[in-house]
Amino acid sequence: MCEIFIRATPQSYQGQSRSLRLHGVATSIRLESLFWEVLETLARRDGMSVGQLITRLHDELVAYRGEAANFTSFLRVCCLRYLMLQGEGRIPADPRIPIGSLDARSVLEGLPPSWAEEAHAGSRVAA
Domains (ranges, CATH) in the chain? Predict the structure, then answer.
């Protein structure tokens, strides 16, 4: 069992910092290389740069929760959720299908509570 995990290349779990601007404010985010690869895939699917994707995720998180606490952890969870939902067949494997074109309610319907909460009443997050 462990060989499946221990044979990951050391580069995939090496930390990598990237600088970007969130609404004109310079910031730095440190993630393992493998997470950056997944974020690049997500961004590409919707015709964005990684910086644009991160800004959008940040803005939508603040709009939904009122803050962006633990944002780096949130980005890791986004990557994991993307891969898990794709593995479940809820997100198409075809990279030509933008994530933004998917119906979030359909994708999230019937997931266990540990995977997705009910939408906030009256919340409206842009697709």
Answer: 14-107 (1.10.3990.20)
